[in-house]
């Protein structure tokens, strides 16, 4: 670009969309080179250009120009690099997370982010909620997947150390010493349709024997794009695709307790088989799947790790206008909004509502955050025939004119969950940006084209298990809100607990309830003394184990049944019982069940002739609530987070109002 062209482009800047970031970067570089005069940034385009110019000459000014802009993934990454160059590392890490979270579908962006992540790690410790080790064992190369997986996991607050087995040598890694040396938390068996062994159960058993607490993420079979048998591949029992699908069904049925199936068949179908399979790349580099589909694969693997670690999104918060219906209720009125037949657009909104209704049926909690007058916001739920959702489907309904980040905080407080448990869907980019800025823990999805598809592809609300408690979760939380109202009207905490008529049921671990027990072990954070995330295999081994005392605790009161809300596991070592796991669901905190659970354990230990019960408190970012529990129930502090209770005296705790069923 010569000087005349630069001047002309500067004069016409507002006709260029902000999405053309490469154009602004090139124009800025040329403008700086020729010393072109840049006007005061009075438009988003001019501010972006001024930022690009300043990033070359004045980094602090450049960062200030980003304030108030709805940043693209590329701009988030540039911000991260600028912050790092100024040694503002906390801001750099936060900006890098913004880049990855908003650009997870771009292989180019993720690759650039992963390169910068490695560089930044050399300058500043990576912030994280959980550090895990992941072994990638594959029949194809993992050279390109591993850095993308580290980047996507970092965006989910997980720091990963990755071991990559040699290409095709997954058996050697399993039967040799590599896994024992590395001690992974997750073992990814990344196989594909060209190479599936018939002895997977042997591989699983070998891993479980060496690493009893590791979770195996086992790929099921993807499908070839060009099967030689054409239609016969699908229509006959011996067809290529039919055999692979049968294999997948059997894999799901026969998987071991320590195995989670990675649904590669579903993922490859979503990506498109021709896009997923790249024969040329396979023959040249033994890379499978194609490079363009690796971001989606990394996101699926991270989602399964999050679920295993208990990092779950629990609440879906929805905007109303142009999100649950078309139009603005306060301006268009009840007859003017579009939802339901006969409008095609209206039917699309009803379809999204049906999708949300089904999420609620499997345990996702619903809330509303809308900028509206309350009476206007409620009107469609009360009187519009096209609405699938009703007011009673939402536990919290925020309709006001305050910032939506404040509504997020109110919703989280009301439901007693963390902000990082919320997923917020809104069509308005400014509202999305405001929540990202002021409540960054919330996962934000801007509904720009198809809210149902975007929510589905985000994997935020995916689950690999479904329990009876999940199906009853909405009603459980409804009852919790009623209890809160009763508590506020009680004369004292003791009178409140007495009025609930609490009744507990204690049961040994059973196969029928193991799925719920695993959920609690994986998900419970606040009242969890050790936060040990035992895999299903370990929990199953506790059943009828003579050296382990393992119990689940159900609770009910005058409002209804809480279901299983407590888990306690103790290991018997001679006359000493050691508490391995002691946790209580957040919805049962403050009811005295934790004291009842400890009393039950002490009674059982004394009855079997134990002389001492020991316990450990392992602090995390979320379990400070339980930090004094051992001392509160009479355990002696013996240092370094260890406690003991001598059973020579009568172990009687009275701080509860619970009868045993």
Supply database-style keywords.
single chain, 661 residues, Rossmann fold, nine-stranded mixed β-sheet, 19 strands, 46% helix
Mean pLDDT figure: 88
Quaternary structure state of the chains depicted: single chain
The CATH C-level class name of the largest domain: Alpha Beta
Tally of separate helices? 30
CA distance, first residue to last residue: 82 Å
Question: How many individual β-strands?
Answer: 19
Using the 3D structure, state the CATH architecture of the largest domain.
3-Layer(aba) Sandwich
> What fold name goes in the CATH topology slot of the largest domain?
Rossmann fold
Estimate the strand proportion.
15-25%
Helicity, as a percent range:
40-55%
State the major sheet.
9 strands, mixed
Radius of gyration: 28 Å
Structural class assignment: alpha/beta
CATH superfamily of the largest domain: SGNH hydrolase
Parts with pLDDT < 50 across at least 5 consecutive residues: none
How many structural domains in the coordinates?
Answer: 4
Using the alpha-carbon principal axes, give the shape: globular
